[in-house]
Amino acid sequence: MHVTILGIESSCDDTSAAIVRDGKVLSNVVAGQEVHKQYGGVVPEVASRAHQVHIVPVVAIALQQAGLRREDVDAVAFTRGPGLIGSLLVGVSFAKAFALSRGLPLIEVNHLQAHVLAHFAEAPKPSFPFLCLTVSGGHTQIVLVRNYLDMEVLGSTIDDAAGEAFDKTGKLLGLDYPAGPHIDRLAQQGTPRFDFPEPQIPELDFSFSGLKTSILYFLKKEMAANPDFIQENLADICASVQARIVSILMRKMEKAAQQTGIREIAIAGGVSANSALRKALEMSGKEHGWRTFIPRFEYCTDNAAMIALTGYYKHLRGQFVGQEVAPVARWSM
């Protein structure tokens, strides 16, 4: 007998719906919000209103692409948190209404746990236990994954996330939001010749606030001497910033692998789409004898396939919630 999960994701500014049947992704539909570019970041109220517009057609398309009907869905999995509360409220409310109308069970999903399980959307898939570096605009953490639903956070950011460091740097450089892809593209044309300090944070935790501050003061100093400094050195600045962020991430990942003895190493989250980080992981893998895993781009960014996949594994364990469930802005794994 098949188990068919409808997944709903609305934690930030992407509205997504997906269908997973027996652990296989049948559809994964995402509607983005270009409007936030003009503001240089996600505006929560604008994002919430856009989710209300997108949610019904996105679900309809996901069902259509999967070749299924509403009647074929066995359970509804949804992102409960963490994320923007207004955005989450739209997805949670829709999931509850859909489940109530069909008499279906509800499955709450932690967004960060789902990023890790995105590795099971398609082959090759890591074996347990494995380490996963989850890097996004709001989160940076190293996770020990013992099983689909047994995870332990070994280290996380004590202030800003790596993705935020990319975006704030991009804003200083006059790049469009989100800045990560622009910095990645420009970095490939430059040389990392400017040296930014690496934070000395103990154990496996991260910190990027100091790096952001050092970049700000560096640019102010150079522009005081040469107002055209950014324009004349943009590619090299991007290459230098990217190289430092990647070195911070990989140094901690190597330390985690050494401490645990685990050789199955994965990365997930939006920043895992960064070409330099992917290359660094592959190089470290060859150097240390790791098996490395990087999801396809569509499974790196916020998407409902990872939510539905997590829902599938929780469905097998009978982990359901009632209609009283509410979204939460902060929710640790």
Q: Gist?
A:
The protein is α/β, with parallel strands linked by helices and 333 residues long. It is built from ten helices and ten strands. The longest helix has 32 residues, at 229-260.
Q: What does this 3D model show about the protein?
A:
The protein has 333 residues and is an alpha/beta fold. Helices cover 44% and strands 19% of the residues. It has ten helices and ten strands. The strands form two sheets. Strands 3-2-1-4-5 form a five-stranded mixed beta sheet, with helices on both faces. A five-stranded mixed beta sheet has the order 8-7-6-9-10, with helices on both faces. A hairpin with a 2-residue loop joins strand 7 and strand 8. Helix 4 (162-172) runs parallel beside helix 6 (209-225) and helix 7 runs parallel beside helix 8 (275-288). The longest helix has 32 residues, at 229-260. The radius of gyration is 20 Å and the shape is globular. The two termini are 31 Å apart. The relative contact order is 0.19. The model has no long low-confidence stretch (mean pLDDT 94).
Blueprint (SSEs and pairs):
Layout: E1 4-9, E2 15-21, E3 24-31, H1 44-66, E4 75-81, H2 85-102, E5 106-110, H3 111-117, E6 130-135, E7 140-147, E8 150-156, H4 162-172, H5 180-187, H6 209-225, H7 229-260, E9 264-268, H8 275-288, E10 291-293, H9 297-300, H10 304-316
Parallel strand pairs: 1-4, 4-5, 6-9, 9-10
Antiparallel strand pairs: 1-2, 2-3, 6-7, 7-8
Helix pairs in contact: 1-2, 3-10, 4-6, 4-7, 5-7, 7-8
